[in-house]
């Protein structure tokens, strides 16, 4: 440190007196944030401590700064001034010099988030400064206080939901930190999907109660985490569904939203208390979604409808890279339950569902045994295939995954058999209605025609899954031949369905190439060959057709001349 008469000493002494005098001035003592010189003095003292690198100076400064922090926090609820920037400057001092003065910054950080940011997250200046602070200290926070961001992720989601795309870049840098704790990984997913609804809820609070800045809208509730976690795991392994919560909240006016409704309390909380319970059938939720459909979208809502898919991209990418199999396995039933339950915007719903299904298939690709572990919820979703277009698409993808990954692998024969039986049931239930034909439905509404087309598409996937599953588990081949034979003989109006069944029956009669075409993409048996390859060296012991006739699309019966690959592959 410089000499006693140096500019540095006079400088820090002046700023230290400024902090000390603020406790004696009655106006400043009751409202420290009203004097901008205090913020300047805190920042300048912090800079001097770093420049001088003197433990004595840090020890002299710390008591005054700590007193200012405690006094500011105690006055937050009584003041209309913003304390965010002042407290952030003090927190930076605590983080940088806490080890020198033996100050644990964890309680101070939590106090700031719980008492200050919960009141000032809607202030764009404080919001930006908070994200900058978290990014500058990201490494220290994640290593020294690893549970901090996961605990307060709902508050940080409120911050980004209200401030929108202008802070997206800064928020994306800290976003992975919200997922670092096993306790936040699962609850974070539904909170991300529901970000547009969070915007609507915040806007409703602003319209009914005034500015969001300076008033805490969080409500401390009894945690429902144990019940919801048990419900999720129960669905994963027994197939029972996660309840929506029912219409357990009442509102005297269905067009108005009561701020005390569980719907509101859940969305507007500041801290993570486990898996959120979304009351999708409550009067508040129904009224909110209906009002949203009937009114123009705000700029904030439009921004969040665009941002949410991008946040999900990061969430799913990190999940596949860093998250353990147990958590991902527990996440998949949650994805299934939310596939048909989200904010009613056509483009948003498409973008989100696309990402949900892509992640689910990627998870099955990485861990095919998930299909066997989650057989109950998978079979339940197959049973809901025609409840809505979204559930039909989910069933399509599940059928593909069942066939592609052999029902979970060779060691899961019981699960594969149960899945096979569910596919059989779905096939037989729909054969009779498919015989009604597209020609008949063409006389009806266009919606009916579209439904029939969707049904035929699903049946094609079911037929393929049955053939692939039986090729992997050969004990199922006799039942598969019976099922596919019924489809091939049915001659239902959509030629794609019965022709595909006929083609697969033909493949099953070609043992040398059946497994290569219909087998799993990643055989667990080292002796199995990969799909798309044919072991022609077995021609001496097994009958091999160079190219089976039934692959030739529209060409019926045996070819009348020799053919080459040009007959099969389309010309450019």
TrEMBL record:
Domain AP-5 complex subunit zeta-1 C-terminal TPR: 294-522
Domain AP-5 complex subunit zeta-1 ARM repeats: 34-158
Organism per entry: Populus alba x Populus x berolinensis
Protein name as annotated: AP-5 complex subunit zeta-1
Annotated Pfam families: SPG48, TPR_AP5Z1_C
SUPFAM superfamilies the record matches: ARM repeat
């Amino acid at each position: 440190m410089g000499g006693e008469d140096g500019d540095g000493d006079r400088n820090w002494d002046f700023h230290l007196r400024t902090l000390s005098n603020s406790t004696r001035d009655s106006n400043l003592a009751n409202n420290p944030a009203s004097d901008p010189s205090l913020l300047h003095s805190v920042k300048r003292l912090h800079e001097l401590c770093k420049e001088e690198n003197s433990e004595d100076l840090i020890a002299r400064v710390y008591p005054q700064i700590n007193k200012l922090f405690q006094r500011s926090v105690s006055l937050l609820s009584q003041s209309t001034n913003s304390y965010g920037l002042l407290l952030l400057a003090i927190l930076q001092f605590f983080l940088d010099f806490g080890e020198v003065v033996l100050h644990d910054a964890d309680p101070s950080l939590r106090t700031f988030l719980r008492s200050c940011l919960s009141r000032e997250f809607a202030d764009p200046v404080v919001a930006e400064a908070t994200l900058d602070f978290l990014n500058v200290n990201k490494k220290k926070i994640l290593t020294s206080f690893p549970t901090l961001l996961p605990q307060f992720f709902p508050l940080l989601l409120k911050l980004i939901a209200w401030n929108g795309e202008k802070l997206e870049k800064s928020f994306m840098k800290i976003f992975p930190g919200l997922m670092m704790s096993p306790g936040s990984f699962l609850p974070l997913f539904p909170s991300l999907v529901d970000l547009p609804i969070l915007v609507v809820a915040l806007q409703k609070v602003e319209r009914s109660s005034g500015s969001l800045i300076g008033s805490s809208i969080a409500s401390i509730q009894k945690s429902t985490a144990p019940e919801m976690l048990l419900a999720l795991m129960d669905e994963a392994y027994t197939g029972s569904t996660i309840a929506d919560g029912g219409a357990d909240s009442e509102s005297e006016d269905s067009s108005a939203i009561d701020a005390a409704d569980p719907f509101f309390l859940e969305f507007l909380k500041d801290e993570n208390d486990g898996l959120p319970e979304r009351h999708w059938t409550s009067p508040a939720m129904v009224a909110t979604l209906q009002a949203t459909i009937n009114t123009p979208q705000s700029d904030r809502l439009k921004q969040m409808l665009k941002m949410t898919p991008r946040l999900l991209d990061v969430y799913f990418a990190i999940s596949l890279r860093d998250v353990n199999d147990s958590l991902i396995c527990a996440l998949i039933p949650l994805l299934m339950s939310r596939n048909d339950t989200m904010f009613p915007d056509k483009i948003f719903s498409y973008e989100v569902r696309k990402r949900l299904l892509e992640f689910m298939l990627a998870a099955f690709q990485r861990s095919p045994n998930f299909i066997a572990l989650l057989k109950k919820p998978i079979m339940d979703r197959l049973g809901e295939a025609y409840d809505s277009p979204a559930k039909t698409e989910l069933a399509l993808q599940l059928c593909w995954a069942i066939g592609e990954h052999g029902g979970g692998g060779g060691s899961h024969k019981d699960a594969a058999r149960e899945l096979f039986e569910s596919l059989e049931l779905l096939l037989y239930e729909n054969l009779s209605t498919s015989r009604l034909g597209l020609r008949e439905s063409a006389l009806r509404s266009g919606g009916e025609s579209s439904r029939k087309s969707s049904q035929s598409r699903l049946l094609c996937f079911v037929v393929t899954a049955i053939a692939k599953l039986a090729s992997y588990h050969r004990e199922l081949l006799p039942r598969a031949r019976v099922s596919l034979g019924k489809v091939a003989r049915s001659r239902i109006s959509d030629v794609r369905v019965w022709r595909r069944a006929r083609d697969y029956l033909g493949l099953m009669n070609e043992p040398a190439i059946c497994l290569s075409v219909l087998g799993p993409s990643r055989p667990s048996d080292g002796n199995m060959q990969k799909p798309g390859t044919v072991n022609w060296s077995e021609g001496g012991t097994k009958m091999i057709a160079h190219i089976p006739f039934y692959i030739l699309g529209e060409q019926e019966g045996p070819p009348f001349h020799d053919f080459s690959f040009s007959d099969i592959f389309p010309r450019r």
